[in-house]
Amino acid sequence: EAKARGEGGHQRYVTGMESRAAERSRRHAELRRAVAEDQFVLHYQPVVTLPEGSMAGAEALVRWQHPDRGLLGPGEFIEAAEETGLIVPLGRWVLREAVRQAAAWRTELGEAAPRTVSVNASPRQLQDPDFAAEVAGALAEAGLPAAGLTVEITESTAVGGGATQTNLAAVREMGVRVALDDFGTGASTLSLLVDCPVDQIKLDRSFVPEPGRDAIARAVLQLAQAMDVEAVAEGVETPEQAARLTEMGYRRAQGYHFARPMPADRLSVLEPMIPGRRAGP
Ligand code: C2E
Ligand code: MG
Ligand code: MG
Ligand code: MG
């Protein structure tokens, strides 16, 4: 560091800083523009019943249709969206689009439509005092019954401040379901489930059972049953895992073994892809 204070070194150091900062602000500008120009799409991943494999719901997962870089997953932009606050307008779009699609599936598929569509909501969104009103507005505009929407939060969101608790209580009061995502990976205590009541717990995929390593999956199911909360196993990749979860008593699962996230129009014609899915009307 001291050496870098020589004229050339100092220059190089500052230039490096500037270009990192410049790169960052360029990425942020790009993201801001993407939000303004609607460069996002939602893919949907089925949540299925065990043991039947019928579609019980679908989770909306956002992707960025980048003009040069192709389709980008949330790992490439959600953090930047959080940092810049762009997650609020982006999340608003995700909510409205998922609710619109959920209502459209009900019209198109009737009984075969996913019963509920899940949307991931970030801490910043839940802290926004307008969140519950936006949810109500989106449901009313699309004509979707509240139970047709599930809002997924993580443990860190659930302990968050601002209007979070008011928003969560308000949407549950409407009949919207709330799910605790990635359960077991946060730093919160089990008392969270008392302080912040939810309708569904999603067992994080790191706890999907492997031979000789299924204690957490069992314990979380028992906890969910005792609290009358639905348990979903995430990240199920193999038939062995699906069988083991079924044996344990899990009734809901999600993962590549059943179906990958896909565009909405592919989910509509999914029937042959999920063994045992009940035929539509
Ligand atoms: P998540 O909500 O826990 O979503 C599940 C992630 O696991 C998805 O990744 C999904 O594609 C992936 N996945 C599903 N089945 C399997 C499997 O069997 N094996 C493995 N290895 N992975 C599986 P994706 O789409 O890349 O999303 C990553 C995360 O980004 C999500 O995790 C969620 O936290 C966040 N995210 C996605 N969409 C949104 C959004 O609209 N808003 C916000 N705030 N966050 C979002
Ligand atoms: Mg999720
Ligand atoms: Mg998850
Ligand atoms: Mg996650």
UniProtKB/TrEMBL annotation:
All residue ranges annotated as the EAL domain in the record: 24-275
Protein name: EAL domain-containing protein
Residue range from the parent sequence: 572 to 852 of 852
